Amino acid sequence: MGTMRRTVLGIFAAFILPAATACTITTADPGYVAPPPRPPLEQLEQAALVDPAQFGSSQDVLSFITEDRNIVCSLTSARGEHLNLPYEPNSFSAPANAKLATVPVAHCELAAYPKPGAADITDDCAGTGLGYLGGTVLLTPKKATYGECRSGVTLMEAAYGPRGTRRGPLSELPVLADGANLERNGLRCSPYNHGVACGNVSGGVAFFVARDHYEAISKPPGTAVPTPAGTPKTP
User: Fold this and answer.
1) Which of 22, 40, 53, 188 has its CA 20 to 30 A from that of 217?
2) Phi, psi of 32 (to 5 degrees)
3) What mean pLDDT is predicted for residues 115-125?
4) 3-state secondary structure string, the chain?
């Protein structure tokens, strides 16, 4: 009887011991401080590049939307002020524009966005001084520009703003996951830190844009000064 009891206890212990040793108890560290997000150029330099095949039928334009459906971006080309965007009408391919130089660019639109700072209003909007709005950002290999002259909402605001339709070509775009990195013609874009960074890493030019603030970096790393944030236009 004693032998049987020892055998039963041994079997019981054999089952209990692995279960006990496999348990992990995690406790919160009240002193832990999460590391700050990387600066935009550092994020674009270090984040892993993804296969561009799913973001465009050809290498002419790579387009994506963020997981929160607040930002749409395209790595594309410009001829003068004409952008080759697959989701809105444009004159990029018009014969009259064929003589213009083709430049690689990154272009983003937002559904909710900050106002442009006074120092970043770069156009007098046909001499009126009115109608320079935020919600768009354009990167060329040499500079980043936030805002533009327009009379209405951005395409993203029309689709995903408070009164948006949630339909149309933007709803069909693939999502570029947070932390991923997409590249075309030396320009990169990466969603992270609740926004999107795009830049020319070798040229030290980049931008970061989110719902509540933006940065335009047009100087070499270490000398760039972030642009003051504005107030979100839409919640």
Assistant:
1) 53
2) -75, 135
3) 94
4) CHHHHHHHHHHHHHHHHHHHHHCCCCCCCCCCCCCCCCCHHHHHHHCCECCHHHHCCCCCCEEEECCCCCEEEEEEEEECCEECCCCCCCCCCCHHHCCCCEEEEEEEEECCCECCCHHHCCCCCCCCCCCEEEEEEEECCCCEEEEEECCCCCHHHHHHCCCCCCCCHHHHCCECCCCCEEEECCEEEEEECCEEEEEEHHHCEEEEEECCCEEEECCCCCCCCCCCCCCECCC
- Lowest mean per-residue pLDDT among 23-27, 156-160, 205-209: 23-27
Amino acid at 47: A
Closest CA to 41 of 139, 163, 147: 139
pTM comes to: 0.80
Tell me how far the alpha carbon of residue 117 is from its chain's centroid: 20
